[in-house]
Specification:
The protein is α/β, with parallel strands linked by helices. The chain is about 35% helix and about 20% strand. It has nine helices and eight strands. Helix 1 crosses helix 4 and helix 5 crosses helix 8. It is globular. The termini are far apart.
């Protein structure tokens, strides 16, 4: 099987197990059974009420597993800020079966969060809605661990995503020893592949042509890490 045919087969598998229904006139809900996740997940899609021929896509990355709202409800903020209409975007809010750190486990096929987003969620959105499909059209935003995920995803896949914004994120974390990281990364060796400080150092030359990474805001937990990152020239792009 070729790589392209394998990708089409994976997308077909996702679509076969996807049910779509309107949660509101400007919102749709997709229920997904992906081989890359343990159990059912979903993607909520918010679209502008006004007619726009082709849309960019903003992926709002969650900080909790499933539909948890301990740290706030992303869907409430998407609506409160009127993101879809105000900016003329399709806004996609995926869920993950386990605590999201946006990494692929090295040995557990059903715990591959990066692959799930890239091979299941993105193709689903781009085959179901009138969105641009090039890298200039895909935007990422997150806070805390999902801010880590936004930066990690763009730095690992600069040809897939255009920009990534992180708020109050543990970007200076140097080992998978806090915040539920261990079971997701699986090993220190695997964590090193996603380590943001090393990715910034290695990929800075790719990103200097235009602003693609945003780092702002803190609630106190990661203030020192954010100021350390922004203060060190070797980390700046």
């Amino acid at each position: 099987m070729t790589r392209n045919s394998a990708s089409r087969a994976r997308l077909l598998l996702v679509l076969v197990f996807t049910a779509i229904g309107p949660a509101a006139p400007d919102e749709h809900l997709h229920i997904i059974r992906s081989p890359h996740q343990r159990g059912q997940t979903s993607v909520r899609v918010f679209i502008p009420a006004r007619d726009i021929a082709v849309l960019k896509t903003l992926y709002v990355l969650p900080v909790e597993a499933g539909t948890g709202t301990r740290w706030g409800d992303p869907a409430v903020e998407i609506r409160r800020l009127d993101l879809a209409d105000k900016h003329g975007l399709l806004v996609a809010l995926p869920t993950f079966s386990e605590l999201p750190w946006y990494a692929d486990h090295p040995s557990e096929p059903s715990l591959r969060q990066e692959r799930y987003l890239l091979e299941d969620v993105l193709p689903l959105i781009e085959s179901s809605y009138p969105v641009e499909t090039g890298p200039a059209s895909r935007l990422l935003v997150g806070f805390s661990k999902s801010g880590w995920g936004a930066w990690s995803l763009l730095l690992r896949h600069p040809g897939v995503f255009a920009r990534a914004a992180a708020w109050d994120a543990p970007l200076m974390q140097n080992a998978p020893n806090r915040f539920g990281m261990g079971p997701i990364f699986g090993s220190l060796e695997n964590f090193e592949r996603y380590k943001v400080t090393e990715l910034v150092r290695a990929r800075a030359w790719l990103l200097r042509a235009r602003c693609r990474l945003v780092l702002t805001g803190y609630a106190g937990a990661f203030r020192k890490g954010l100021t350390d990152l922004s203060a060190q020239p070797q980390y700046m792009v």
